[in-house]
Structure formats: structure tokens, C-alpha cells
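Q: Given only this backbone (335 positions), what sequence would you predict?
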């Protein structure tokens, strides 16, 4: 039988254990709240998911002291709506949208994800080797008449005294549909997004003109990332740790994708490549688009490219501003 003093001591030990346990339990949500979080809206099957998958696979968010919460959405427009509604902190889109929004008073700002653009791909056996060969041909264009690759292709064609909107039989549509039409011989060529072009090339269809080559022919010497991550300047100021950790994590993921073939084998089921050749084509195209630099040269080229978009696409594409808006590019991000 225990003495009264022993019972008191035992009770205090129980209380101490309970207090310690409760403190430990309370510390978990407090710590979780202290971890900077970035909420990103992504297309359900978009290529940015490959980067997010690698970040998760290697624990790069935790290693950089942040949490990343993904919200899968059905379309680019849905991601923009989610960003503007405050449902997410970040989306991937182009800086044309950012500049147009800034001209209207918004504070969105951009840092790069990829320099990849589309490519002109010909049907198997089609006698198409240059832009002049598109005259009177059936040309499918992925997206809408405001697609950036379409604007670039028209700009280059005009230098060769070709009006593609008039001289070719142009139809616009979703990339998967256009690919199917091309493979069935119902189109002579398609201008499509880089990942769809890579899939077509892996099946033996020739890339007549990548848009990166078209830009070089137009006098652009430095690859420019048209597509990137977009956040608000206010959010960036208020969440510097989350932003810095996210930039580090994405760059580390890109480095892994840029150097490790094994990582692509791991990603293959998520990418849904039809064959090893298709996986290799997607890997090589993705690697070619990883931004190597994002400095003054690239930003100068971006301003010149904006002028081209304004000239060819007009206000329907760029809005009321004929020049790239100040602040379009986030100044704190260096590559």
C-alpha cells in the first residue's frame, strides 16, 4: 500500500506527463501553421505536373522549408479564375496575360517555367518543307487565332510575302483532335503545342519548323520563356519564404529532369507515353525548354517579342498597351 506522499508524487508525475503530451499535441498544428505554404493551380494533365510530381517524389518542398498545395483544374481559363478569386497563390500562364492585366491595374508578376513553344508538323509524306508549301494546304492550328505560335508563324510568313490566314485553309481546334486529323490524312500540317509536336515526331512525322527556329529567323537570338509561374506582387512581398522555397524546389526538380533518365522512367506512367520513343521525345523537348538564364538579355528580347505580338495580334491579343508593362517580370528571381 502506497504512502500519502507517494500518491501525491505519483499524481504530479501523471499531471506532468499529461501537460507534456498536450503541449506536444498543440505544437503540431502550430508548426504546421508556421510552415510557409504556396497553393498552385495546375491543369490536370499539364506538363507543370511533371515538375510537381518530382518535387513530391524527392521531398523537395519539405527540404526547402515549404508546403505546396496543388489544385487540379480543367482548363487554363479555370486556373486564371482561381488565381483572381484567391483560391490559389500561383498558376502557370504567359506574360502576355500578365502585362495585359497590369495595364488594367492588377499586380500579377511572372517568373519563368519554360522556353518551349509549338512546332509546325507535316503529315507523313506531305510535300511541305517550308511556309510557301502551305499555300492551298489544310493547316490545323492548336488553340485559337490568338495562339502565340500562330502569331509567330504569321509574322515569319509575312516576311516571305505569305498571308497564311488567306493562302492556307486554316482550322483551329484542340491539339488531340488536330493530331488525330493529321494522322488520318485529313490535314496536311498542324501547328501545335510542343508536347503534342514531340509525340507526333516520335511517330515519324516531320517537324517542318519549330517556333524556336522561327523566332531565330525573325532575329531573336536569346530563348525567351513565354510560359511561367505567376503570383501577385503583394503576395510575393508578404510570403518571401514561400516564394524563395518554391523557386528553389522547382529549379531542383528541373535539374533532376534535366539530368536523370531514370526519373523519366519513373514518370512514364504519369506522362502516359505510348512508347519508349515517345517518352524520349518528350524528355528531350522538355529539357530543351528548361530556362538556362533569366536576366537582362532575356527581358530585352521579351520586350521586342511583345512588340511583335502587338503588331501582328493587335489589341485583341495584347489589350490596350502597345508596350510590355513595368513589373511584368518578378525582379527577385535570378537564374
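A: Predicted residues:
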Amino acid at each position: 500500500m502506497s504512502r500519502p506522499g507517494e500518491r501525491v508524487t505519483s499524481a504530479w508525475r501523471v499531471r506532468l506527463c499529461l501537460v507534456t503530451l498536450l503541449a506536444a499535441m498543440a505544437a503540431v498544428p502550430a508548426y504546421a501553421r508556421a510552415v510557409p505554404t504556396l497553393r498552385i493551380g495546375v491543369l490536370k494533365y499539364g506538363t507543370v505536373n511533371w515538375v510537381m510530381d518530382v518535387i513530391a517524389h524527392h521531398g523537395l518542398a519539405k527540404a526547402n522549408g515549404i508546403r505546396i498545395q496543388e489544385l487540379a483544374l480543367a482548363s487554363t481559363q479555370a486556373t486564371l479564375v482561381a488565381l483572381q478569386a484567391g483560391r490559389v497563390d500561383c498558376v502557370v500562364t504567359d506574360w502576355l496575360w500578365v502585362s495585359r492585366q497590369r495595364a488594367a491595374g492588377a499586380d500579377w508578376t511572372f517568373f519563368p517555367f519554360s522556353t518551349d513553344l509549338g512546332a509546325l508538323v507535316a503529315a507523313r509524306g506531305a510535300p511541305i518543307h517550308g511556309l510557301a508549301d502551305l499555300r492551298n494546304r489544310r493547316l490545323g492550328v492548336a488553340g485559337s487565332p490568338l495562339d502565340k505560335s500562330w502569331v509567330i508563324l504569321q509574322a515569319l510568313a509575312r516576311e516571305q510575302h505569305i498571308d497564311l490566314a488567306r493562302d492556307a485553309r486554316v482550322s483551329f481546334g484542340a491539339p488531340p483532335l488536330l493530331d488525330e486529323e493529321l494522322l488520318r490524312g485529313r490535314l496536311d500540317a498542324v501547328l501545335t503545342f510542343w508536347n503534342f509536336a514531340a509525340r507526333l515526331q516520335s511517330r515519324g512525322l516531320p517537324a517542318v519548323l519549330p517556333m524556336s527556329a522561327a523566332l531565330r529567323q525573325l532575329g531573336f537570338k536569346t530563348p525567351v520563356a513565354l510560359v511561367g509561374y505567376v503570383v501577385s506582387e503583394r503576395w510575393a512581398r508578404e510570403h518571401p519564404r514561400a516564394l524563395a522555397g518554391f523557386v528553389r524546389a522547382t529549379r531542383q526538380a528541373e535539374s533532376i529532369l534535366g539530368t536523370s533518365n531514370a526519373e523519366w522512367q519513373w514518370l512514364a506512367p504519369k506522362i502516359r507515353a505510348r512508347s519508349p520513343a515517345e517518352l524520349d521525345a518528350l524528355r528531350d523537348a522538355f529539357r530543351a525548354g528548361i530556362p538556362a538564364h533569366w536576366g537582362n538579355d532575356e527581358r530585352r528580347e521579351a520586350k521586342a517579342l511583345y512588340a511583335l505580338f502587338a503588331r501582328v495580334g493587335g489589341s485583341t491579343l495584347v489589350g490596350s498597351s502597345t508596350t510590355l508593362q513595368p513589373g511584368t517580370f518578378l525582379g527577385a528571381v535570378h537564374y
